Amino acid sequence: MTSPGDALVRARIRLAVNEAVRGYLFDPNVRMIDFGNPRRQGNLCEDEGAIRVHVRRKLAGASLESAVRAGDTVPIPKVIAGFQTDVTVGRYRPHFVFPGSSSRPAKVSPYWRRARSSRATRADPMSGGISISDAAQYTYGTLGGLVFDRATGAPMILSNWHVLVGDWSQRPGLAIYQPGRLDGGVYTDSVARYVRDAMAANLDAAVATVGNVRRLINDQVDLGPVRGSMTAEIGMDVVKSGRASGVTYGRVTGIEGSQRMQYAGVERLIRNCVAIEPREDGAQVSTGGDSGSLWLDADSRRAVGLHFAGSDVPERALAIDLATVLDVLQVQLAAA
Amino acid sequence: MGQRAALADLADKRRPTLKSVQETAPSMETAARPMTADDVRAQVEARVKSAYDEAMARMSAEVAEPEGWWNLFAIGPLQIFGVPGPLPPHQVIKVGETAFVATVIVLNPFLILAPGLTPLSVLSNFALPYEVRYQTGNLTTWTLGPGALNVVHSGAGLNLIPGQAFYVDILSFTANTPGLYEMNISSRILGAAPPFINAPQFAGYARQVVDLDADTLFFGSSIPAPGFQFDQPIRFQVYP
Q: Domains (ranges, CATH) in chain A?
């Protein structure tokens, strides 16, 4: 059982993150605030925890003073609500792909080409980790996995709002293509209809009801079936199967994150973020086109997060706590 | 066991030891340390979060949920001396002792205003400021209670956070004057900017007070069991 002490530490973390969010997240230079492992001299300190403030540009000395004088930012205190702070660079963007976008994963090009060929084509049955998009956007993201409507039991596709919807004017009923349009999907590839999303609850997630054209099964390409869900914890080794970068491994380094992100011209605050970084320096965890994929605990294959964004420098993936997503969308994850 | 509890059990196996968390956030088992308002806030937050998660996991289309856009709940007075577990109420307080009253503002995540739109999303996404007002009278002398029990918590740091459904406010006080006291708590969610700060506001009273030790000894089932007491202020006695 979770001990009262653990629950209280987690409560203190949430309260501290909330205090930091109130005070600093709306600073123009700050993009995200979470709780996780700080970096000292570039090295991740895996046995420490800190309130992490992710900024566009890391400022110090004269440049910080100048920016403060200009009203562009405010200094981050060394301690917030009793926790030490760590300022880290993070320029995040939603991980989907548009024509001409620069998000192709050069670092893994040989594998990526092989992965792309299998994940970008028409699949029957469909599974997690393959290309998908809605009918209106010329793009692709990743089909996350199979979920069931809690009220009706209907099978549904789980992915991101910016993959299945992507536009504030869209309404339920929008056709979903597999493969995504940028991978050649056309109206005859319509496999599902967008039903509802969680954007109003500050979660970049949506579900679409699967039609009778093709089956959707509980499987992740090259990983096997999802075996349930669990809560991400700092230090957990995780793996995902994404349309663009294929199977990649990472480690959870941050939890309870709140992040500002632009969606179709509107800035939204996304909550319950989990930060994932490579287990080895130089490795890749995600890239544009992986949006919507499920991050699984590497050992148990239980899902912990829904991938939605990331940054290349430093290499970092962002996911949304899956239990929260499932509750808000009122769906149940298919589990083997 | 709820879904969240089951998930937490699984997560427990992987929880690493974080030095600084343990150092900077000592657990409630530290018996010798006097409790602070932050300790009480963390206890209340953990309990409300647990209940909130369970309610979200159980939510289904046909279940009626809290009415209204938002509401206030009050718990207290509380006096905790380093003992983990449920928060015991302390309605009889010795002069010189410290006690706490916790107020929880809950924005309704269940009421569907339009597809995908709830009071939680409408109110929280504007990051509106809010205030909590504590008003206390001395019923023994029929006079206004001490200044520490008649305060307004407002200003910096009291803003709604996009997506955050509940907010815990703690009043900490030291009992000084003997007597029977009655406390009412109200709250306002204010407009976003100075020209609108007094324009359409949301106001309410903490009508639901958690009374965990309702007396049931002599009068059978007609006396309410421990739980929420409706339309009651918080009452407590301070003795010399």
A: 1-90 (no CATH), 120-216 (2.40.10.10)
